[in-house]
Amino acid sequence: MSLKSKKLFLKWLDQKEPFLLRLAKKNIALKSGLGASDSVSKASWYDQIISTVKEIAPTVIKARAQSKALKIQMKRADMGLPPLNISDYTPAIKISPEITPESEAALTRMAKGTIQAGMKRMLMYGVPLALGAYFLIFKKRR
Predict the structure, then answer these.
(1) Among residues 80, 57, 84, which one has the least CA distance to residue 68?
(2) What residues does each domain of the chain span?
(3) Which residues contact 28 (CB under 8 A, 6 or more apart)?
(4) pLDDT of residue 142
C-alpha cells in the first residue's frame, strides 16, 4: 500500500468513522508510551494506525450491532411484544473463523426451512405436472 493510499484511507476513516480513528490513535499512544505524533516515521505511523484499526474494528462493529439489537428489544418491550431471537434476523459477525454451536444451529434451521419450502413447492407443482406429462405422452402413443 502506497503512502498516498494510506493517507487517503485515514482521511476517509476520519470522515466516516472518527471514533474508530481516535481509538486507534489512543491505542498506539498507550502501546508506545509516547504521544501519537512523536518522532515516528510517517510511513510506520500509518502502518500502525491501519493495523490497529484492523484489530479493533470487528469489536467496535459487534458492539454497535449489539447496541442496535438492544434498542430493538427495548422498543418491542415498550409495545408489549415478546423479545425477538436476534440471531435469526441479523448476520453473524465473524471475529474468528470458528463455527460456534449457535451459528451452526442457526445455519441448520435456515437450511431445513429452505429444503422444506423447496419440497413443498415440488410436491405442490412438480408432481402433478410430471404425472400430467406422463399421461399425455402415453395417451398419444396409444
Answers:
(1) 84
(2) 1-97, 99-142
(3) 36, 45, 48, 49, 52
(4) 58
Which residues, in sequence order, are CB contacts of 90 under 8 Å at separation 6+? Answer: 65, 69
Give the position of cell 442496535. 68
Cell readout for 10 is: 485515514
* 96 three-class SS: coil
Q: What is the mean pLDDT of each run of 10 residues along the chain (142 residues)?
A: 80 85 81 57 76 83 83 88 75 56 70 70 76 79 61
5 CB contacts (<8 Å, ≥6 apart)? none
pLDDT of residue 98: 57
Ramachandran angles phi, psi of 105, nearest 5°: -65, -40
Read off the C-alpha cell for 53: 484499526
Instruction: Please provide the size of the chain in residues.
Output: 142
